[in-house]
Specification:
Blueprint (H helix, E strand, L loop, with lengths): L4 H19 L3 H22 L6 H18 L6 H22 L7 H24 L5 H27 L3 H26 L3 H23 L11
Helix pairs in contact: 1-2, 1-8, 2-3, 2-8, 3-4, 4-6, 5-6, 6-7, 7-8
């Protein structure tokens, strides 16, 4: 536990400092501390996983990190690249959620619930897209695909937790909630109302998503404790 704690401490400290530097508009501090967040939490993953690396997951988290660095450098013209990088992360996590899903336990009620959730999230995607004016047809098509993937990922994570009520699926659910939250507030801040509070909520959800991603990937079914036991 002592060997793991410093990496979590560095991750938390860098996350808090990034949020503070954003409030104070101290770009130099942000430029220094934000790149530390993902490496710190990924080192926690490596330690928890016995220094073994799942290379598909590494691709997903690296893609997210690359997206963060492009945003940090304020390359606004690379919005398509940023979206594609984040989309790759979601596709990777979608693979893991589908892999963990126990389809044999899904009855008609769960399927109906899944469809209802999916339609609800697609409705949120439609609202977010309506706020994004002056975008090209290609960008719009990319955002639609992006929205469908995150909607499918989150809806499956909800069903996964209902079917397999344990810590792993719980972390997966929290991870997806953070994904949705950060994307929603990103759109609201950049395309509707540029209030600092929306940016802070975007950042907080994004940093939390990294933590829950690592927890999801390091909690194994055989070692989980079912709720209520």
């Amino acid at each position: 536990m002592k060997s793991i704690y410093p990496s979590i401490l560095v991750y938390a400290f860098a996350s808090v400092l990034t949020i503070i530097s954003t409030v104070l508009k101290c770009d130099s501090l942000t430029f220094f501390v934000k790149p530390v967040i993902v490496p710190a939490i990924f080192y926690y993953y490596i330690q928890k996983n016995g220094f073994k690396i799942d290379w598909l997951f590494f691709l997903g988290i690296s893609s997210s990190y690359a997206s963060d660095m492009i945003v940090l450098l304020e390359h606004r013209d690379d919005q398509v690249i940023i979206t594609l990088l984040n989309l790759l992360t979601y596709v990777v996590m979608l693979y893991y959620v589908i892999h963990d899903l126990r389809f044999k336990k899904m009855g008609m009620q769960k399927i109906i619930y899944f469809v209802g959730n999916l339609l609800s999230f697609l409705g949120i995607v439609y609202i977010m897209l309506s706020l994004m004016s002056d975008i090209t047809t290609i960008s719009l098509a990319l955002y639609v695909v992006y929205g469908v993937v995150i909607s499918l990922l989150t809806s499956l994570a909800i069903i996964n937790h209902l079917v397999n009520h344990n810590l792993k699926t719980f972390y997966g659910l929290l991870m997806c909630i953070c994904f949705v939250t950060t994307d929603v507030f990103y759109v609201v801040y950049n395309f509707y109302m540029g209030m600092i509070v929306f940016l802070l909520l975007n950042l907080a959800a994004q940093f939390l998503s990294y933590f829950y991603m690592m927890k999801y990937m390091t909690v194994f079914p055989k070692s989980e404790i079912e709720y209520g036991k």
